[in-house]
Design goal:
By secondary structure, the protein is mostly beta strands. The protein contains 6 helices and 14 strands. Helices cover 15% and strands 42% of the residues. The longest helix has 16 residues.
């Protein structure tokens, strides 16, 4: 796509300038297409029809639940703290099945494998299978433009809702009960795969080292919440490698005050959640902060890898006049190109 964009720009320049021997002398009311400024790099995704790319995604969060935060603060080691974790490792293959170098590309994604792991409370029952473990073998298509923006994610949205239904069990007495799941982690890896380049406002002008731009990413959590993090991307440097020039993009995260309306919702209807995070209520995020790093291959037009990590502190409530428990979540999300 990057080559096609260059050719398209050159052709357009020729047309607008008048390729009849008087090039450079004619003016046009349309105006001239400006070339990239010196030092700017064009960050666009590039696909080759039929050529598959395989990525491994890993999402893990370590959770500390402090039942008596005031006591823990005044007398370290004296409070009651439960520690747990949950993780998901997944391999997805993306194959372009229809490539339009001047428009949209259709990509078929296949979930090859997925393993979800969740710690068990001492003396507790083994956790039931996570809903995301129904994903291996599932496929969906995405329509993406050259800037990496997903223009059509209908099938991905339908798959998210289908997997969301797998998280429920029915009880004649309690109604619909939702088990803990990592669907939010699946969303965070697939819905925002090319976000770092797709969120560049003036993508055709390229970006320079030191330049920053903003976006929003989702926040997967062990409880049912719909939150976003504000992201600031910065092009730190351009590295040379055997695979091509690599754009090193750093990112910083903070709690966002809004969530885009178009983001997917995996659950429909009323329900209750099982486990500790169904027992607690009144969740209030106090802070979220973190950082990340990504390598984007400029010459190949693809993401090579990324690492994101952040810490989130949440206050919760218990029934009656009880102290507010404090939840600390350390989240890590990574992706790496396998082939």
């Amino acid at each position: 796509m990057k080559t096609a964009l260059t050719i398209f720009t050159a052709v357009a320049l020729c047309i607008f300038a008048g390729c009849d021997g008087a090039a450079g002398k004619k003016e046009t009311s349309i105006g001239k297409i400006k070339p990239l400024k010196e030092g700017n790099e064009l960050l666009t995704v590039d696909f080759e029809e039929g050529r598959s790319l395989r990525y491994r995604f890993v999402s893990r969060r370590d959770i500390e639940l402090d039942w008596e935060p005031q006591k823990s603060k005044s007398k370290p080691g004296q409070g009651s703290i439960d520690k747990s974790f949950e993780s998901m490792e997944m391999v997805v293959t993306y194959t372009p099945i229809k490539v339009d170098p001047y428009g949209l590309t259709t990509i078929k994604a296949v979930c090859e494998s997925l393993k979800a792991t969740r710690s068990k409370r001492p003396g507790g029952r083994a956790a039931r299978s996570d809903a995301v473990e129904n994903l291996p073998g599932k496929t969906f298509t995405l329509t993406v433009n050259a800037a990496g923006k997903i223009e059509d994610n209908t099938q991905l949205d339908e798959l998210i809702k289908l997997i969301g239904e797998k998280a429920f069990q029915k009880s004649a007495r309690m109604g619909r009960i939702k088990a803990p799941d990592m669907i939010g982690d699946f969303i965070s890896t697939q819905w925002f795969l090319w976000d770092s380049v797709a969120s560049i406002e003036q993508s055709t002008e390229g970006v320079s080292v030191g330049q920053s731009w903003s976006s929003k990413l989702s926040v997967p959590t062990p409880m049912v919440m719909r939150e976003a993090r504000d992201v600031t991307y910065t092009l730190d440097e351009i590295q040379q490698s055997a695979k091509g020039r690599l754009a090193v993009i750093s990112s910083s995260y903070s709690l966002s005050d809004s969530v885009p309306a178009g983001w997917p919702i995996p659950y429909i209807g009323s329900f209750r959640m099982s486990g500790t995070f169904g027992f607690l209520r009144g969740y209030k995020i106090l802070e979220l902060k973190g950082q990340g790093r990504e390598l984007f291959n400029i010459d190949a037009g693809r993401i090579e890898q990324y690492n994101q990590q952040y810490q989130m502190k949440i206050d919760a409530a218990l029934p009656g006049p009880m102290p507010k428990p404090r939840i600390t979540i350390n989240q890590k999300i990574s992706m790496q190109l396998l082939n």
